[in-house]
Amino acid sequence: MYRMRLWAVKHARAFEVIYNALEKLLVKLHPLMAKIGYSRLEKPIAAIEKLCKGVLFDCRMCGQCALSSTGMSCSMNCPKNLRNGPCGGVRANGHCEVEPNMRCVWIEAWQGSQKMRAANHIFTVQLPVNKSLQGRSAWLARVKEIVQYQEPKVK
Amino acid sequence: MIFHDEPIPGEMLPILPGHTSAGRLERVLRAGHFAVTSELAPPDSADPQDVYKRAHVFDGFVDGMNATDGSGANCHMSSVGMCALLTRIGYAPIMQISCRDKNRIAIQGDVLGGAAMGVSNMLCLTGDGVQAGDHPQAKPVFDLDCMSLLETIRGMRDKGEFLSGRSISSPPKVFLGAASNPFAPPFDFRPYRLAKKIAAGAQFIQTNYCFDVPRFKEFMTRSRDMGLLDKIFILPGVGPMASAKTATWIRKNVPGIHIPDSVIERLAGASDQKKEGQELCVELIQQLSEIEGVSGIHVMAYRQETSVADIIKRSGVLQGRTPWFPGRDQQHLQESTAK
């Protein structure tokens, strides 16, 4: 869904708002999700995530979503899987070196990021992709991360 | 220039205070000299002499040679193999590491192996896509990207740890390089990407062919305004074009190379295009060396390697300095005793 992907980047700011709301909602649902068990939720949530993000962003389910740092342009669509910005091979017309018919994922990312509140997130150096997370839900992972971070404060 | 502790081939120089490697390239740059590096095209051969022949061409004119790692996604002798041969006789190669063909396990192994052989400089690249080369059927790896590669090697060097966190008993003491392409869009993001590379551990930068001096100047000005130039040594890339036809072909087929029309027109209008290409290269070196923040030059003279010595000589950037090469000091000694 190449067109959808470009549309999503154009509306990066709106998706940022939606994403932040979704994150808050999921964190609120944590007690419930913990009761059901995250391992039980993994498969169904991952399936929902794959469907939504697949349609919107051509998501590749890397399991460690960086969309909020990449202007809502999924960097796993880059044929070189670059997580930190455009390579030197970008064509003069802004298209990809490997796939001449596709706009560079990182040109999109740069434009999308400038529409977002968290515009400076694109400057953070991203860690290498953890291949063992492929196919898992990034949403659940994020909630667990936030909850873990908050817990010591509660105590 | 002779270092008082100049090595016997195979022996490492001591690491100076404030330096991260034992290499000559880092010494030359940190001492404020204008450094010259060149691209060493790897042979399609298993004969070590083919590597040495190609290296000797640059003797006395370069401070380091880039051992390319399947550049343009074409298959040649490996960069590690070339470095093994070059370090054996004391050369200071810059080992290029591309993320296209190897995963993090293989790359980290090569970093240790390279450093153990005496490689002091490593250039971290993402690599051209496989579609550009002679094996488009190959599986592209891209497990790391150039940024995470820089960070990985820096971690190995400074923390003494693999990416996994397992410790390394004797860390690789290397000077870390990266590439930068100010000539590819998105232009306004390029200085930020340079900042990211510095944050990830890059200590020197080599760029792709630089024909568009105004664009390069703009990139340097913006980098300076961001306070980046004090943190990095920048060596813009140059090279002679054999003809207007070659330049047109390269512009069309090699990813990431921007050649303005004016360059092609100038070459096409010359009676001896090859000579004109070299002349242009000399001029570019002189122009680039004047720009604030340029610490050296990187020459890529594919299939014109023999012209490099003359180009460097004519540009005058070495200012009478003779970079080390095997046998240099014996030669100096003989000359001085003959007098």
* SSE order of chain B, one letter for each helix or strand: HEHEHEHEHEHEHEHHHEHH
Number of domains of chain B: 1
Q: What structural category characterises the helix and strand content of chain B?
A: alpha/beta
What string gives the helices and strands of chain A in order? HHHHHH
CATH architecture of chain B: Alpha-Beta Barrel
Largest sheet descriptor of chain B: 8 strands, parallel, barrel
Q: Nearest-angstrom radius of gyration of chain A? A: 16 Å
Per CATH, the class of chain B reads Alpha Beta
Helix residue percentage of chain B: 25-40%
Residue windows where pLDDT falls under 50 for at least 5 positions of chain B: none
- Binned, the helix content of chain A reads 40-55%
Query: Rg of chain B to the nearest angstrom?
Result: 19 Å
Mean pLDDT of chain A: 94
Total DSSP E strands of chain A? 0
Distance between the termini of chain B: 19 Å
Task: Summarize this entry quickly.
With 155 residues, chain A is mostly helical. Chain A has six helices and no strands. Helix content of chain A is 51%, strand content 0%.
What does this protein look like?
The complex is a heterodimer of chains A (155) and B (339). By secondary structure, chain A is mainly alpha-helical. Chain A has one domain. Chain A has 6 helices and no strands. The radius of gyration of chain A is 16 Å and the shape is elongated. Chain B is an alpha/beta fold and 339 residues long. Chain B has a single domain (24-338), classed as TIM Barrel. Chain B has 12 helices and 8 strands. Chains A and B meet through helix 5 of A and helix 5 and helix 6 of B.
